Structures are given as structure tokens and as C-alpha cells.
Amino acid sequence: MPKPFSRLVIATHNAGKLREFAGLLGHLIPEITSAGSLGLPVPEETGTTFIENATLKARAAAEATGSLALADDSGLCIHTLNGDPGVYSADWAEPGKNFQAAIARIQKEMGDAPDRSAHFTCVLVLCWPDGRTESVEGRVEGSIAREMRGTGGHGYDPIFIPDGDTRTFAEMGETEKNRISHRGNATKLLLEKFAALL
Ligand code: IMP
Q1: CA 187, CA 193: separation in Å to the nearest integer?
Q2: Annotation marks residue 73 as catalytic
């Protein structure tokens, strides 16, 4: 039976994300491109939830191209900080993608709070050209280390210790992290839920 969609647009301007999703979904859809490669503008992330932001990015890409589009939104939620930095995870590192400063702010705001639990979340939204959307959410539970450890990964990885381990994400290899990470879990769910629809 012919596949209903020949092209998927990943709603990102990040070449790494395009590569990652192309690797995961390439066997399901013939052409995978990105909003960045097509020269589309970066939509403003005005939502207050992960799903709102992922939906507005996916919808903007689907509307601009008439293609099926996929967007993600992710962040670190610290329970004693009422879920902060959450959807503002990237903003806390501005200006200059300064995660040392963002991590210092987290440690300051947490102080001696006994509850150091946190989770990373990743929401993926697929938007069809007719505006219909479907979403999945992947999470990884863990806790915030008192000091930065490790040199791998990116962002908040040096302070996130996934449950069941003593190392931070930055002390793990990329393959090991992806096996248990919020993004890894979300993409597994996406494949399960959408393989039949693509
Ligand atoms: P997004 O690209 O709008 O989803 O923003 C995600 C932000 O959340 C990034 O800038 C990082 O600050 C943070 N983040 C998301 N996933 C991870 C991760 O796996 N490790 C470390 N930081 C992450």
C-alpha cells in the first residue's frame, strides 16, 4: 500500500536534531528535512507548557510547507522549585547559552532543600497538513547533584543523576544516556504510536 506521506519536516533549526530524527525515522518516510534547511523563520516559543511550545513549532512548519511536521520541546523540572526551569530551561542559560550560570542559579535557589528530585521531559508533536496533531511525552526521573560532574552531554547533564545510577548524565556515554533519557523514551513512544500512520 502506498505511504500517504512522502516528506516529513522536522521543526528545528538545529542540525544535530535533524540528524537524530532522520536516523530514527528515515526507514519510515522517504524524505526528511528541517525548517532550518528550508529557510523557515524560527517561531517564538510563547507557550507556557512543553506541549504548547512543541505544537506551535510543529503547526508553523506544517502550515508553511503543506507537509507532515514533527517538533520537540524539552527541559528540566525540579520538584522543589515548582517545576522550574521547566519550559524556560534554555532561557535560564541566556545570554550566551551559559549553563554554568543556569546551574549556579539552580543550586542557589535549591539551597539546602532536602528534596533534590527532578525529571527531564521531552514532548514530541506530529502535525498533519490539515492541522491535526498527536503527541507523546517521554520522561526520566532523577535527582540534582550538589556539584557538577562529568564532561559529556550538554546543558544540565552535569547535575542530573538518573534514578538507579550514581553518575550524572555527563558521566555517561551518549548511547547509554539515550537508552534511558527522556528523548530516548519519547522517540520509542513515537515509533510505537506512529509507525502505522506514517
Ligand atoms: P528546547 O530545545 O526548546 O527543547 O530546549 C531544551 C532545553 O532544555 C535545552 O536548552 C537544555 O537546556 C535543556 N535540556 C533538554 N534536554 C536536555 C538533556 O538531555 N540534557 C541537558 N539539558 C537538556
Answers
A1: 10
A2: yes
Full domain range(s) for residue 73: 7-197
- pTM to 2 decimals? 0.93
Tens-digit pLDDT profile for residues 131-168: 999 999 999 999 999 999 999 989 999 999 999 999 99
Q: What is the DSSP string of 63-88?
A: HHHSSEEEEEEEEEEEGGGTT-BGGG
Q: Is the CB of 157 under 6 A from ligand 1?
A: yes
Q: Indicate whether residue 90 lines ligand 1 (CB < 6 A).
A: yes
Residue listed under C-alpha cell 521543526: 11
Residue 156 lies in a domain: yes
Domain of residue 50, CATH code: 3.90.950.10
**Structurally, how many domains does the chain consist of?**
1
In a domain, 188, yes or no: yes
Best of 18, 73, 76 to mutate for ligand 1, by most ligand atoms within 8 A of CB?
A: 76
